[in-house]
Batch of 2 targets.
Target 1
Amino acid sequence: MNYSLKERFKTLQLEKIQSVGGMSVLPIVSTETFNEVRGADGFIFEGTDNYGTMNFKNDTEDVAIIPSNFMAITAERAQDHAMATSGFIEGGDFESFNNACCIQSSQGGYISGKADSEFNILPLSLRNGLDASSRFETGYDRLWSRIEYFNENVTTNRGAHLEYFFKEHKDRLEDFVAQFEVVHDQVGAFVFYGKELMGVEIVPNVEFWKGIWQWLIRGCYGAEYLRQTLLGREISKIGLPDLNTAKSIGDVVNIVDSYIVNGTLKLAEGVSGDWSFSNKPYQVKDSKTMVYMKGELTGDVMFIEEDPVYISLVKPIRI
Amino acid sequence: MDNLKKLDPSILSFVPRDTYYLSLEEQLKSIESSWELLLNSDRELFALLMILPGTNYAKGRMIHYLTSTTENYSDRSSNSVRTFSSIDPLLEDEIIMYNLKQMPMASAIRALTFLAGEDYAGRKLKRVNNTRARRIIMTYIFDRDDKSLEAMAVKFKSKLARLIRHTFGNADLHKVFSDDNDQYRLFHKYCRHAITNIPFDTGVIKTAISFVFNKYEDPIISAGIIQDYEALKQSAKANNVEVFKSVLETSNLPYEIALGFRNFYKLDVDLKFIHEKGKKSEQAKFSTMESAKRHGAEKTEVDFTKQSLKNLYKYIYFKYNDNEKLVDEEYEKLVRAIEKGLEKESKLNVDLGKVVVIVDSSDSMRGHKTRPYHPIITAMLTVNKLPNVGTVIFSGANKFALDPKGNTNILPLVEPVGGTELWNSLLHSVELKPDTVIVISDGYENTIEGMFEHIYKYLEDLGYKFKLIHINPVYDSSKGGRHLVKDIDPICISEPEMFETSYILTMVGQDIVNVKKLLAGIFNKKLGGEKRELLIEGKV
């Protein structure tokens, strides 16, 4: 198997920067997609039947991918859960993942899957807690100490209950996610705090992206960004251009246009380069999933045959 | 009058719905205090504002306030700035009846049930049963032709029973059914006192009342839709499918009634049959079109020209959303209906000078999945109603590929897509030298956040003179709308007509007398009555 991502990256292009506060997104677009793979419109979360086990089914004929670190906060009196990795389900199949994590330290009960759940992707610093070595291990309580630390000073209730954060900051997170928009043919994004690349998310097709991007922006990157700002940690903003040199409306248009293009290009420089790698992946679960590491980025890459169809890599951040 | 400097824009646009941020009860508490503040500060303004477009719920509650506070009803010593000479009681009643008649029947009846003490979801309101409230209820119910009354009795049977019982009271209700002529005469007298222009000789009123109170055996029930209703009900009760079908086929009973009986009595009748044989209004044909199709009913012929522009736009956007192509004939019909709708469209009563409109057509204007495309549809409909619009700039849009023949799309609709770059459109618009730039946007800006305000301030500093109005079609009564420019409060609307309302509400704090004059003008125009004499009696 050729583990290089290079070929996939060749088919991708970047769109104009979207920037809100100190968080920026470079949308990734492509017309070459893998349309036979489904995301949120393919898998159905069927609840839990053991602590640390999440069940899914796929009623469609296509294969489905559960995005990396998918989490469910349920309305039931039951333990909320998050996936430690991504997941792969064949069409018409049922899968149990017993390496999932409980994200409440003192809540009993299994999720029946009948009541509504709020879905997200784990916040960035919690994803960091599931590093390459521990992703495929079992241990339902392995995020608790990290969640407790995550909540410290940013939630009224203390403890290892991730729902505290999401419930307390629900309106701000919704507001934040609403500010970022899907662009035409979007299949992914590079996400930055200030000028620092924090993660790359690439999915098989446009519908897949539409199904999960809010979970990513709200749950993973937005929640972490909000937490970092609540803790008073400075994240530089892109800022606005100086218009004093403009002599006409046309000049203003040019100045702002160049400012946005330059801003896009500057961030793009940070993600360019060689995405191929010759080393073996850190760990391979089966023929389709692997943990990938490139520099500081860690996460899942999922292959269908030789094609890397799903890529989700994040960088460590100070918790 | 200081407390009227900034009126709560939800006064006329409130919708009783839980929102993400506040429970319904919390929202109601807040809006009720706004209504009470306005009513107590300036009752006349409260009444006059009701002439403006608003939601049926808000109007219903305002009617409840006006009728339940009769102690101030003719209070001449209040601090109100009265602009009408001596017609206050009539003015209020005219406005109340005008509003009830403007509402769909179901909403008007619901508004009247507020007077009977019923709000949503078991919530109770103060019961209002004074002479005036009774007159309003009776006039609305009975001041109509026989057919309309019978149809209303059939469609809103239990609600009418509730209202009539509330109006007459149990003690007088029996007079309606009494065989005693003296008693019946009393009922006549009672009704005549309340309603002066209804012919009582036909007995239809008595028939309708008997029907809603289940006096089936009464011999006066003899013909028409009420008889059909009873026949349908009896056949459903007896599980006689053949009779049920035959009654439905030969009667004028509405589709909803047949569906209700079918479901309640668990009749083995195909939904296809109910869809095909139940009578549907043009509105019902349109709203049940998809359901009828799903159940295999023969294609319902919908007359697009009788649909509102909103319905037509929704139809197109939903088709687009479902990746359904419009067929040739359908497309042409839609185009014609939209053209006709646009010709008929009346412009709002606001003076804005030369207007340039920027429509945010970025991806977020698709709206939430619970109300898909609502923001962009509201934006498009608002553009149609704005007066004196020179140019419309769609920021970020894709042209719809709707024409099945691949011709240039002539429908004035766009597909919202991509990021938000409103700053560019603002620069473009000032080059057109407008008096007013209206930007219709949900207020979410990302390329780059704050750029629109940055450009606006720059233009302001350079001395460009234009009024900037931000209309936000993503409406949240508890939070207000999201700002694009810090100092410019967005005018939040859920329906295009609400722009006129919200815009006028923003003027109240600046010049209450002129606002009243403006409202009086609209009042005269809408009610077509004789010109009211304006008399300014107070000082603001």
Target 2
Amino acid sequence: MSGMVRSSLILAVGGDVLTKYGTFSRRYQSPLRGGEEAALRCVRAGVGGTSINFYNQSQPVPANIPRLHWAIDPISGTLRAYLLAEGGATNLVENSDCEADVVGWEQVASTLTRDSAFAFNGAWAAKVVTTNTDSGFGITKRNAARMAATVGQGYTFSVWIYGTGTAVGKPCILYINWFNGGAFLSNVSQATGGLLAGWNRYRVSGIAPASTTVAEPYFESQGAQGVFTFWADLPQFEATSANVALPTSAIVTGTAAVTRAGDDLRIPLPTTGPFWIYSRHLELGSGIRAGSGGGWAIGDGNNAYNFFGSSLNNGWAFELWNGGNQGSGAPTPVPGYGQIVETFIDVNPAGFVTHMQSIQGAAPTQTGPTAVGVPNILGPPMELKIGLDRNGNPGYAVGFSRILVGQSTPRTVVSLTDARAVEI
Amino acid sequence: MAGPLFLSENILNTLLFTGHTLTASEEAAGFEVWRIADGRRSEFDYWTGLTANTQQLITLNCGTQVRAANCLFLDRGHNLAGFSFALDVGFDNVNWQTVVSITLPTVSITNLLTDRSAGVRTEEGAWGMLFSSGVTPPYTGNYWRLRIPAMGSGLYPKIVGAYLGMAYQPVNPFLDPWDDDQRSLTAQRIITPYAWQGVGPRGRVRQGSIRFNLNTDGEYDLARLHLGGYYGDGYPTWLVHDIAQADRACLIAVPDGPLSIGFQPNWFPRQTSFNYLEHEPLPV
């Protein structure tokens, strides 16, 4: 009935906090008096971007506003709010929004027009009426030239497609053609397995082969599928990791390529610890790429608790860093795209650090307890960094349903299972 | 009985939420838009526009913060009954999502506060709606907008008070005894030596005591924020004893005396206990 006693809870951040308290972050044991405390605010430094709203539509988010991402929780099966944090990216597509025209969209055995019947972003999308065989569209720059690509670089093409009526279930395929000038080299492709109803994002990734100078992505029906209609919006062609490539959140463009800088979210902390920290996030790509930067960190570059993407295991890793590594872990298995990851760091006042990770609610993988070799002193500024590692490096994409920070005394929370039961 | 509700939080209040700014498409001198969130209920303290028969917008910019809300009240004294009214939310002051778009009811009948088609007109003419509850998450954004379409020739909208925020719905019902009609009549009286009684203007003040159980730490913290924090600090609060009879809702303020949101680790259920007094009741 009561859940785990959470008298040691200091701070809670994330989508769960927003839907309960009306704001992304909440500091405990500090009553609100005579106005809103600055310490309660979850502040984002970053340019404008997009997120997915409650209705599975693209939602423009201006600069410096924390991004709210709605998605089905893969464990509970319910729609849930997440605080989105991701690294920077550039959409090389020059006209992804179709709001003014469809210049740069190439008809491939189809009729492609700007249309407002369905739109994933804004009021307009590209309406595609297929003919029969291998029918769809390609994406070029506005001047019809193919987009530049660098040899050895990983690229991901993604696009939101609206399927309805007879289009649902039609096999389609995405592919990226690599060229040297006008000479075709090779391609990489990914079948959809059949269009889904409503707005869904499809993607394909590959590494530009030797001699590549330019590339063009396509989305087409796979073979002879007859005549059907679908809508496309926010295509994105971006340089991504060569390890495991996944698209970042959609970047809206109209006249030129647009770069979205990485998120930088920080919240002040009132005390120096030691802490226990628990986070629960929707895996959107950060943890399954090598050396991908931060999930979160507390402290400065030299004195910090750190949760970060690591090349040690191409997954998430933990560390307590006090001028050097005082205890770290790189647990396996590595999460998959769209899975729920729970992490826990406990720094025992007696001088031991323990890390735990659970994927999709499975039994936690534990590393430690490891003796802490130096005094457990975290460096100022005392703040929780979200989407960053201890050095301020952003990750790729994470959606936090909650991050909890608690003090280690009284020691009522000593395991991931304890922290999971703490009510916010 | 569908359960009680408190609306203590008002994100339109820029003194409480210091990073917020509130603007209107038009403001008449002496009837500025900040008046809708100043807590006053006088019929002479209201916002209105400058141009008759034109759409008016009241826009809240939450600054760098994303705010969620699930409940809206318009205090008595508004002149929107029978006219169109909308509440929108967005992230950029350009792309708006409609949260509420209705014609405000002209009569007060017993109704659910969760009725998305009309909301509820209270007995004294205020209007309210709980537009998301239960498993439906609250609406979110860093821009909120009250939108009042053109009302007709020669007409200006008038809003005395508006309250927008996250309502607090206790899990448990109020403990007995409680009475949503508990009240007293206030008036200045004079009794002559001959026993003639003179009575001045009368006020019917709703007041009483409320106690209910808090089953969990999570609910304790909600009660502490909304009742211990907002209400306890003197911000006017909408009290709905029963969401199914929201026409009896009243605006309350904290009276003198103690207010307790009891805390004892590992002891459940805890109880909260406090008194309430109607805020600026309507003269009878």
